[in-house]
Amino acid sequence: MSAPRRPLAAAATLGAFALALASCDLRERPAARNESEAEAEAPLERLELVTGGARAGDALPLVVAIHGLGDTPRGLAPLYEGFPLPARVVLPQAPTPHGGGGSWFPLPFDPGGEAAFERGVAVAAARVAALLEALPRERPTQGRPVVTGFSQGGILAFAVATSRPDLVSAALPIAGVLPRGLWPRALPRGAAGVPLRALHGGADELLPPGPTRELVAHLRGLGFDAELRVYPGVPHAVSREMLRDYHALLADAVRRAAAAPP
Questions:
Q1: Is the pTM of this model over 0.90?
Q2: CB of 204 within 8 A of CB of 169?
Q3: Contact at 8 Å (CB) between 103 and 96?
Q4: In this structure, which CATH number among 3.40.50.300, 3.10.290.10, 3.40.190.10, 3.40.50.1820 belongs to the domain 18-259?
Q5: Which of 49, 86, 93, 152 has an alpha carbon 20 to 30 Å from 135's alpha carbon atom?
């Protein structure tokens, strides 16, 4: 669940992106409180990018992009280099240090096992949901946000899109899945109009695509607008083809957000 290894641009620079580090007070919903109160309410640092030649003060579609295990917002930011449409991309920093970056939740093989993994995903998803609620009040925003991410970030994109679809206009998980205990049992209100487009490497040994196929099939059975693209031979990484398709899907989502009524 580490940073995406990109055969095309692993060391890409941020180019002419407009960058801004910021923090906000993210308070999770009371039902999700499974961390200590101090940890759960600690501000999350974030990196903000403005793409497509836009200015930071413009009203823009909002993309919340979540990094993977051991990564940082700056490590994920090159995925948005060259994205041609005006958008505001906000990349939050995971609160728990891990290696040279951060972690959003315990892993299934950590102490506590699957139960701690499931609780951790639920808590982290609640914090991301709080960010999705707060950002449109802080920044001039068109439409509802798009949520996306790689690995742990892909897990959280699935978690938010299936638990709080009212907060997002689209979800684009990359190399993600969802703990079975968090699979929805019914179609949440507002979910039918939220496209969920997942991408996954077919040779991913860290998070194999099989469970993600099962998850997407389950979501489709409930009525979610969910699709999965699997890329043969691609490991836990973002290939050129994946990046091309991801930018096309993101562009569709950004256009939908820009066209939404105020």
A1: no
A2: no
A3: yes
A4: 3.40.50.1820
A5: 152
